[in-house]
Amino acid sequence: MTPENPTAAENFTKIADDAVTSYCAAYPDEATFLGEHSHDDRLGDPSTAAQERRQAELTTLITSLDELPAGEFDTADAVDRDILRTAAQSELHGLAEIDEAGWNPMRHNPGQALYGLLSREFAPLPERLANLAGRLRGVPDYLEAARARLGDMPRIHVETAIGQLEGTLALIESEVPAALAQAGSDLDLSEEISRAATAVRTHQDWLRGELPNAHRSARLGAELFARKLELILATPWQPDKLLEQAYRDLDRIEAELTELVGRTTGSANVDRDAIAAEYARLAADVPTSDTILQLCREALAETTEFVRQHELVTLLDDPVDVIEMPEIDRGVAVAYCVAVGALETAPLATQFAVSPTPKDWSEERVRSFYREYNNHMLHNLTIHEAMPGHVEQLSHAHRYSGSNPVRGVFGSGSFIEGWATYAEELMAARGYRSDISTAAAAAVRMQQLKMQLRAVLNTIMDISFHAGDLDERGAMELMTVRGYQEEGEAAGKWRRVQLTSTQLCTYFVGYVEVRELVTDLRRAHPDWSDRQLHDEILDYGSPPVRYLRQLLGLPQAG
After folding, report:
1. Is residue 496 part of a domain?
2. 12 near 20, Cβ under 8 Å?
3. 3-state secondary structure string across 399-443
4. Is residue 441 part of a domain?
5. Does residue 172 lie in a domain region?
6. What is the four-CA torsion angle of 210, 361, 329, 90, rounded to 10 degrees?
7. By CB distance 3.0 to 4.6 Å, which of 221, 257, 292, 438 could disulfide with 287?
8. For residue 385, which of 321, 305, 432, 327 has the smallest C-alpha distance?
9. CA distance 439 to 522
10. Full domain range(s) for residue 487
11. What pTM does this model have?
């Protein structure tokens, strides 16, 4: 076709490229992590005017996508069009209906935008520091605009935001000067550092002053939650049906635990007390803040060799840095994965971040944390976060090259988490650590089932709180009794239930959808090996499972 008469596919490619460009401009901190560095010297705009401009952009985008003659696309472009449209609808719903920027002060923290320039070596440090100077200069105006934007807020969000800003202050006043010293730069950022730190303290003081009037409910409400779930997870699951499925899986996992503990202990009468006692026994084998990093490195080597020997998936052997989690991120989970951004061109390693406990924690809280994240759990977490979970899946996704960047930029969180949760089950089913001993394999299987329980309970609590009336007592009982969680872990999750919505469903929704996908694909190709089957699933980037089924030529589930 001539430029004057482009095809539908060519029109879509331009629309998709423009959509990614406008997304990066609207969210410069996200752009940095994605690998688009044109906006590294500035922060986002939290103002109402900026939000209204973004809503207009999204409305125009959705109209443009709807006007395309979908019948003229190949399957890949048709899927990407639907992914982009769903992502635009989701963002628009978040801005126009939920309006979180107007009531959640946690959304207005410049810390991650600053941290993104310090933590990834995509450019020489002096160049990143020059851009950091621009972001530091923007902090006072950014926080002033945030205060003008915020109205009635939930108390728990205000309290959490105040605490998170302490991490931002530490980054500004300690990590930035350390980076300047490391770079040996002549760049003088003393004034920018001082003004940014003062602005953060001013914002904290303002938030403290708002605490007596922070009466907004943290519950999203049934209607908003259902629509957000549908769009964020790109799933047909409705909350009531998902809740029913979660309770069925809760019973299934408890039955599997009962059988495993009976086999492990030789007991014919296994109840919840017996299961709790077995978890307590395993929880006595704990790491320390001095050993946890090395234990995860060793677990990564062991899981990688197991995947290689059992040919579970094609190993890409991309570089992985096992790093100590920065202080600002500690206290929520023991590990996370930071993949190379979809738009990044620099040869970066994937980061597998592992957390010692925060320095200000009490001795009892530290003990509780490490009982939950004991040595056996570290193996299961390494499977989830690294091999063959996030690290390997995202390495495969990074190699996907379509006609547009949509699938990389708007990857599905539920597919990503679902694959990693499925990977835990896969490794346990294939006998991970059985070469060490039957007891070692059973210990990892116990932790894998505990993590499945956690995913199920996360979903039950997410729905029951935001679309129901779940209270703290009910949530704590679910986690500590039916989930066998440590008190400290459960208390932290109760806070997370109140602070987020739908994200806690991603693990279970993704797992159920990936599990059904694997079953159907194996049924369609009974002669395929594990590696063939898993490579096929991972070869299309990170689309929602409903669209992956379309790409694989499988009917929709249910």
Report:
1. yes
2. no
3. HCCCCCCHHHHCCCHHHHHHHHHHHHHHHHHCCCCCCCCHHHHHH
4. yes
5. no
6. -50
7. 292
8. 321
9. 30
10. 230-552
11. 0.95
Confirm if 486 and 517 have CB atoms less than 8 A apart: no
Measuring CA to CA, which residue among 329, 322, 331 is closest to residue 354? 322
Q: Where do we find the tokens 């769903």?
A: 86
471 contact partners, CB below 8 Å, separation of at least 6? none
Return the structure tokens found at 98. 């939920």
DSSP labels, 375-408:
HHHHHHHHHHHTSSSHHHHHHHHHH---SSSHHH
* Tens-place pLDDT, residues 419-430: 999 999 999 999
Sign of CA dihedral 92, 94, 97, 102: negative
Q: Is residue 483 part of a domain?
A: yes
Residue 436's φ and ψ, nearest 5 degrees, are -75, -55
Q: Which helix (H) or strand (E) holds 241?
A: helix 239-265
Indicate the average pLDDT of the chain: 95
Beta bridge partners, 338, equal: 351
Q: What is the pLDDT of residue 144?
A: 98
- Per-residue pLDDT tens digits for 191-223: 999 999 999 999 999 999 999 999 999 999 999
**Token duo for residue 482:** 């039916």
Render pLDDT for 88-110 as a digit per residue (tens, 0 to 9). Answer: 999 999 999 999 999 999 999 99
> Could you report how far apart the first and last alpha carbons of the chain are, in Å?
41
